Amino acid sequence: MLSTSAAVRAYSVEGKTLPKFRKKPVVVEAVQFDHSPQSALDVIEWAKQYGVTIICRHDGMESHEVVIPTLEGDMTASPGDWVIRGVRGEFYPCKPDIFAATYESADPQ
Q1: Rounded to two decimals, what is the model's pTM?
Q2: Is 12 within the bounds of a domain?
Q3: For burial by CB atoms within 10 Å, which of 27, 55, 99, 102 has the most?
Q4: 70 found inside a domain
């Protein structure tokens, strides 16, 4: 993990300082996958509403995972991962720590 000073330090390439960018505030839909059969079914049915086919794999016991087709190839959501529907309707998994650092609730309190 970068220290605070390293995270804000300006980097340069060939003497030019690289520009900085801030992520635009966008609202996405997301659900946390808990590896249960019901959680897998919820993700599959949610994606199906948008014409996206997500499949479920299981080890024959209780552990399930969902496989999500993305532009970069199939990606697997592990237990605890969030499945996000992005601004262009794409689905992709996100690790819980990245999700927590990037997103906050947009639901009215």
Answers
A1: 0.76
A2: no
A3: 99
A4: yes
